[in-house]
Amino acid sequence: MSCIRFAIFALLLGLFGSAEIATADEAANVWKALRAGGHVALMRHTDAPGGFGDPPGFRVEDCATQRNLSAKGRADAEKIGARLKREGIAFETILSSPWCRCVDTAKLLDLGTIETEATFGNVVVLRDQREALTAGARARIAKWTSRGNLLIVTHGANIFALTGVSPASGEIVVLKSGSDRTEPAGRLLLD
């Protein structure tokens, strides 16, 4: 029954998107934090139509079996990457869910080398592994102590499970530095 509730919640999350978008002051503070470095930024992949989850029989290693980025999603990822570059934001490490829509978003940002990390896999599709994936993601985020920024491109439901924030497609949630790495410092919606 809890799996059904989570699936319904995830569907509503996708339908209603982000209820609260960053204010101008919040965005200015987030840009400042990212320029200073040492932060973790969680980004929801850009537009990938078709509901939530993936079609029956999908395979992570076969993009043709998954929901993929739309033309808008591809263009948005390129625009977001260009904006991050214009703002002088650099990422020391870029991690991605192994799902094609996340990897493609990360590549189209054109900000550096991308590594896939299974613990950022889709918690809606892998609902039986949700707790383990979320715990693994928290542990990976907690280990980030570099002076540079870490970018993680993942799924909206994963970001919600980690932070309680329901991001729009392409939205970036920047986490506070220090010991409370799952507390949002702010959000950026750059499309």
UniProtKB/TrEMBL annotation:
Signal peptide extent: 1-24
Keyword Signal carried by entry: yes
Keywords noted in UniProt: Signal
Alphabetical list of Pfam families matching this protein: His_Phos_1
Residues forming coiled coils: none
Keyword ATP-binding: no
UniProt-recorded name of the protein: Histidine phosphatase family protein
Lineage of origin: Bacteria, Pseudomonadati, Pseudomonadota, Alphaproteobacteria, Hyphomicrobiales
